[in-house]
């Protein structure tokens, strides 16, 4: 059986392009436009402060938000082209 993924092809390509990571932090969200910027910044700050020598990835797993959650994550992210 072939490996299957629920990720969009574009997301899979971006992950493959990144290569390996030492730390992956997943942030689940759904209509969290009022708080998501703080959460993403806190995670990025914590990774930079406590794990500066490790290659880390922050990934937002959005449940289909109808507000601006996803856009805010992209604007807040160090790597805005990643979803």
Automatic annotation (TrEMBL):
Q: Please give the InterPro entries that the UniProt record associates with this protein.
A: Nucleotide-diphossugar_trans
The protein in question is named Glycosyltransferase 2-like domain-containing protein
Q: What is the lineage of its organism?
A: unclassified sequences, metagenomes, ecological metagenomes
